[in-house]
Design goal:
This protein has 131 residues and is of the alpha+beta class. The chain contains three helices and six strands, in the order βαββββαβα.
Length: 131
Amino acid sequence: MKCFYCISTSSNLPEEIADELIAAAYEVVTTFRHKKKIHMDSCEGVVSTKYERSSLAGLRGILFHASLEGVPGSSKTTNVLFVVRPEDFGYLESSDELGAWMLPDEEEEDISSDRLRPNVIRRVKKKQYGN
């Protein structure tokens, strides 16, 4: 299981939206850009990075920022900071393994099976490259 760590958010973020943030971060990295606009049924916004490295709970990766409008349960802009290790993108490109969003103080063994999510990186890779 691969885990992604949310550093901070200004409101409770549904995991479906969090999945789209990971997918957008993957597209940013694999297309050598700094930002990507995202549009979902429930909200829209921008995921961006300056390719800065950040550490969180022993995890060192690329720091991403998302600014979202229309997040369910929030009447204002939702800002999210999250870290992804580049090697996790590489691993997830070829894996069908499920993953989960974790808080920094959680341990992998604390994650129940109902929190496991499909691998969104595989979906994006198929859309980008057809494989």
